[in-house]
């Protein structure tokens, strides 16, 4: 998720703190503002403007008027009562061409989805990036931004499941071809005798079963990008035909003598070592050099495990659009996932998150809930933090009456089979953070004070553990 500037216009101080904290957690850089006039008074090209505490139509139109031309370049997120806001209509929204509606009371998921919409709607697509802020993913994003403006062929390398097609889509979306088609084909999933027709199309009657003329992927991708996945599985005869297209930018449909010109950008991908394939006579060296003008290697998930929490958050958002509940991992479960080898990479993680979203839609996923191969060592009983908060911060007066205060002796009890101290302490920390957020109504700044830490430190811990602060108006 790309970081870009968000102006928060909100007169209610407590609500503003909640919105700012949530935006920071999502990876954005919010700044408080007193009024929409600040948009034109600053030199910042705000990517999104959050306008909150709007109570009626008059106030809404006044704020939109003050936004002026900025509403044409920035996503406007308006938070207000849904009943009258639904009647406002885009025709009354001055020059605002992209309006996100956020209803009170605010919810984390709603704000997150609205901000994702603002990123998609933004005309500056070159700021889009793949999910992950670790060093390896930062390098991938930098390479994507470097190569995207040019039509050079790109060869994406990496193990299966690392997200090679996502890289190809990102390059396309960041290029001048973004308004043209992005067409993908898996060369390894189509029988060799049918691949020519799939790529170049065929005329009616060209072969048995060709009952009508059909366009191939090169024609469908005209003006845009053609992604050739698993190029290493392509047969040698097809490699010759593909090489001709790359060299001369022309092709013929199967069963036709008419030569057609094509204007497509080629991005290829493979999990195979093509240099070894060349040595073994399975891949043409001249085609390799045509495809690998700009090689880009995707890291395996085990090489950027710092992105786990961010990836889980991204997958939760995708699954929520399909009607599935979000997956919440305990600190112990996250530690177990950090210790797993991930042979299936990001795709395996997505499948696991989807499986757990189905199995545990309304509860926290603990180590014992994970499939056995993900648990690593013997799972331990994870400590909840509710009672611990009252013991360690002296805030028992604000806790629910049903909570039981535990003694320091019980906390120090060592299980018979022993425990992982790092895992155990992380569980305690997560429990305390969750309880502090509950006690303070989700206001991160207040929770940080309760936990005697800086707000930025707490925001980093929320990211680390994949926690989501709730937003309440």
Could you walk me through the main structural features you see in this protein, from its secondary elements to its overall organization?
This protein is of the alpha/beta class and about 475 residues long. It has 3 domains: about 120 residues, Rossmann fold (3-Layer(aba) Sandwich), CATH 3.40.50.2300; about 170 residues, Rossmann fold, CATH 3.40.50.300; about 160 residues, Orthogonal Bundle (Helicase, Ruva Protein, domain 3), CATH 1.10.8. About 45% of the residues lie in helices and about 15% in strands. The protein is built from 22 helices and 16 strands. The strands form 5 sheets. It has a 5-stranded parallel beta sheet, sandwiched between helices. Strands 7-10-13-6-14 form a 5-stranded parallel beta sheet. A two-stranded antiparallel sheet has the order 8-9. A hairpin with a 6-residue loop joins strand 11 and strand 12. Helix 1 crosses helix 22 and helix 20 crosses helix 21. The longest helix is centred in the last third of the chain and has 19 residues.
What top-tier CATH class of the largest domain fits best? Alpha Beta
Structural category: alpha/beta
Number of strands: 16
Note the gap between the termini. 25 Å
Count of individual helical segments: 22
Largest sheet: 5 strands, parallel
Q: If you average the pLDDT, what whole number results?
A: 77
């Amino acid at each position: 998720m790309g970081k870009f500037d968000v102006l928060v216009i909100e007169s209610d101080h407590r609500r503003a703190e909640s919105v700012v904290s949530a935006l920071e957690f999502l990876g954005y850089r919010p700044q408080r503002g007193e009024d929409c006039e600040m948009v034109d008074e600053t030199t910042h090209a705000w990517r999104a403007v959050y306008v909150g505490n709007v109570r009626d139509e008059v106030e809404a139109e006044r704020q939109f008027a003050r936004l002026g031309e900025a509403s044409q370049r920035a996503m406007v997120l308006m938070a207000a009562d849904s009943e009258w806001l639904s009647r406002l209509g885009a025709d009354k929204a001055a020059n605002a061409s992209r309006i996100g509606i956020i209803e009170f009371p605010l919810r984390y998921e709603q704000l997150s989805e609205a901000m994702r919409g603002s990123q998609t709607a933004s005309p500056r697509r070159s700021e889009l990036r793949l999910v992950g802020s670790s060093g390896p993913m930062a390098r991938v994003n930098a390479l994507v931004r470097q190569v995207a403006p040019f039509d050079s062929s790109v060869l994406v390398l990496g193990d299966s499941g690392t997200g090679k097609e996502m890289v190809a889509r990102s390059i396309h979306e960041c290029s001048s071809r973004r308004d043209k088609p992005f067409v993908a084909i898996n060369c390894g999933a189509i029988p060799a005798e049918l691949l020519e027709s799939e790529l170049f199309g065929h005329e009616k009657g060209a072969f048995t079963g060709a009952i009508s003329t059909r366009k191939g992927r090169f024609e469908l991708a005209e003006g845009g990008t053609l992604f050739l996945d698993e190029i290493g599985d392509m047969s040698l005869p097809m490699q010759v035909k593909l090489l001709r297209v790359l060299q001369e930018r022309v092709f013929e449909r199967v069963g036709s003598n008419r030569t057609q010109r094509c204007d497509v950008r080629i991005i290829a991908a493979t999990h195979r070592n093509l240099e070894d394939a060349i040595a073994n006579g399975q891949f043409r060296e001249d085609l390799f050099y045509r495809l690998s003008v700009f090689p880009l290697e995707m890291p395996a998930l085990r090489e950027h495990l710092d992105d786990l929490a961010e990836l889980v958050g991204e997958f939760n958002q995708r699954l929520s659009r399909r009607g599935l509940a979000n997956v919440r991992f305990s600190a112990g479960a996250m530690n177990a996932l950090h210790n797993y080898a991930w042979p299936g990479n990001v795709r395996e993680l997505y499948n696991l998150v989807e499986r757990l979203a189905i199995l545990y839609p309304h509860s926290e996923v603990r180590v014992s809930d994970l499939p056995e191969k993900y648990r690593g060592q013997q799972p331990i009983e994870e400590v909840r933090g509710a009672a611990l908060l009252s013991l360690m911060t002296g805030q028992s007066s604000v806790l629910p009456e049903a909570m039981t205060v535990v003694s320091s002796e019980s906390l120090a009890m060592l299980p018979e089979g022993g425990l992982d101290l790092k895992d155990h302490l992380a569980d305690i920390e997560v429990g305390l953070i969750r309880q502090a957020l509950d006690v303070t109504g989700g206001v991160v700044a207040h929770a940080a004070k309760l936990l005697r830490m800086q707000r930025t430190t707490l925001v980093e811990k929320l990211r680390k553990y994949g926690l989501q602060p709730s937003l309440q108006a």
